[in-house]
């Protein structure tokens, strides 16, 4: 029987359009045979290199990568994958640290995505709460103001708040600006905005830390949890039931914000921020990458909690903002929202219903 298969030379001629000799065919077969081993010699085949140079380095290493993540001799001088220590006194000789691409992918990928979602979803959630449980304005004005915050406490609060807002705005520009602002701003304008944001962020950061420490000292005495705070927590502050739950000078929600936000998240952002701000104290790039992860997580949670704090201090609780702005609150508001504190103040010296409270009498100061 005659075979229907075509000779190899005819097949190759039809594919390449020119006569193929036996030597050509042999060279082609050798190249195909070597292609598999050559590709297999590149370690970390699932890696996602950031630059062509990194792929070249992977090819050069072949089957001889570094010693591993936890080894003191990990990586090679000038090219470092998992290096945890330092080459000599500085890392100045490390030109390419490929762990930086892992950081870049996480920072610009999952972390930025989750952060952006939370920062956009929180205002919408607050709007829904406001529309669904819109607080009624204060029914009756007592005509008597009670001092709630001294001038010193207000200065400390607003200094911390303004420095935080500066960090929040510039931090958002640094994290999302390249994706959101650069396309419509153009490189020249965005360069100026990004550089200015970076400088403001770096210089205001230490100021925010100082303000936070002073704020802790100024307000810690009033944020100690008491037995009645548990009732406030169980009832969610009466947010949904519209029921007034007695509270002290600060309610349980404000205390949770103080300890969880101002103290815990503030400490996290302060420590990681200092590591990132002052890089000439021996930190490795690996340390800075971990610090950046934690800084972004802490900053996102702080901004989300701050949005709730701002809402509850303005639209969510009429007259509360005036207390922090001017230092005094209406007596009826104090009784409705902080009844335990109001009773403590009122029991010092019974106030006159026709005379406004002044420092030293009924509402002059908190005991």
Summarize the structure.
One of its GO terms (biological process) is respiratory electron transport chain. With 367 residues, the chain is mainly α.
Task: Set down the secondary structure blueprint.
Blueprint lengths: L7 H9 L5 H19 L11 H10 L17 E2 L15 E2 L1 H34 L12 E3 L3 H30 L1 H4 L1 H33 L9 H6 L17 H26 L7 H28 L7 H7 L1 E3 H7 L1 H8 L21
Parallel strand pairs: 1-2
Antiparallel strand pairs: 3-4
Question: Can you describe this structure?
Answer:
The protein is mostly helical and 367 residues long. The chain has a domain of 212 residues: Transmembrane di-heme cytochromes, Chain C (Fumarate Reductase Cytochrome B subunit, Up-down Bundle). Helix content is 60%, strand content 3%. The strands form two sheets. Strands 1-2 form a two-stranded parallel sheet. The protein is elongated, with a radius of gyration of 32 Å. The N terminus and C terminus are likely disordered.
SS element count, helices: 13
The helix/strand order is HHHEEHEHHHHHHHEHH
Q: Nearest-angstrom radius of gyration?
A: 32 Å
List low-pLDDT spans.
1-5, 32-47, 67-78, 81-89, 349-367
The whole-number mean of residue pLDDT values reads 76
Spatial strand arrangement across the major sheet: 1-2
The CATH homologous superfamily of the domain at 99-132 and 149-326 corresponds to: Transmembrane di-heme cytochromes, Chain C
Looking at the structure, what is the overall shape?
elongated
Strand residue percentage: under 5%
Number of strands: 4
CATH fold description of the domain at 99-132 and 149-326: Fumarate Reductase Cytochrome B subunit
Q: Quick one: biggest sheet? A: 2 strands, parallel
Distance between the termini: 112 Å
* Name of the level-1 CATH class of the domain at 99-132 and 149-326: Mainly Alpha
Tell me roughly what share of residues is in helical segments.
Answer: 55-70%
CATH architecture of the domain at 99-132 and 149-326, by name, is Up-down Bundle
Structural class per helix/strand content? Answer: mainly alpha
């Amino acid at each position: 029987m005659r075979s229907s298969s075509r000779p190899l030379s005819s097949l190759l001629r039809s594919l390449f359009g020119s006569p193929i000799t036996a030597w050509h065919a042999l060279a082609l077969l050798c190249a195909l045979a070597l292609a598999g081993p050559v590709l297999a010699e590149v370690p970390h085949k699932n890696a996602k290199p950031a630059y062509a140079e990194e792929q070249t380095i992977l090819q050069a290493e072949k089957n001889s990568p570094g010693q591993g993540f936890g080894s003191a001799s990990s990586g090679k001088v000038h090219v470092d994958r998992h290096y945890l220590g330092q080459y000599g006194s500085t890392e100045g000789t490390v030109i390419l640290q490929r762990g930086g691409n892992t950081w870049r992918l996480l920072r610009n990928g999952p972390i930025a995505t989750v952060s952006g979602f939370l920062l956009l979803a929180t205002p919408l959630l607050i709007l829904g709460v406001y529309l669904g449980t819109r607080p009624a304005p204060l029914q009756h004005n007592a005509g008597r103001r009670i001092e709630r915050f001294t001038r010193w406490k207000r200065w400390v609060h607003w200094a911390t708040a303004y420095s935080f807002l500066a960090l929040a705005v510039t931090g958002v520009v640094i994290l999302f600006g390249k994706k959101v602002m650069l396309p419509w701003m153009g490189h020249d304008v965005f360069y100026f905005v990004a550089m200015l944001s970076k400088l403001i962020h770096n210089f205001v950061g230490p100021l925010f830390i100082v303000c936070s420490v002073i704020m802790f000292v100024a307000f810690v005495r009033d944020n100690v949890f008491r037995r009645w705070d548990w009732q406030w927590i169980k009832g969610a502050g009466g947010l949904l039931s519209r029921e007034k739950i007695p509270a002290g000078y600060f309610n349980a929600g404000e205390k949770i914000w103080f300890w969880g936000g101002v103290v815990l998240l503030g400490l996290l952002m302060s420590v990681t921020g200092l590591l990132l701000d002052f890089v000439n104290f021996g930190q490795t790039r690996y340390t800075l990458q971990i610090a950046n992860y934690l800084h972004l997580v802490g900053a996102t949670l702080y901004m989300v909690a701050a949005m709730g704090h701002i809402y509850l201090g303005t639209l969510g609780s009429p007259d509360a903002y005036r207390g922090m702005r001017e230092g005094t609150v209406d007596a009826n508001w104090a009784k409705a929202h902080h009844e335990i504190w109001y009773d403590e103040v009122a029991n010092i010296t019974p106030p006159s219903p026709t005379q406004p409270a002044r420092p030293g009498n009924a509402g002059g100061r908190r005991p």
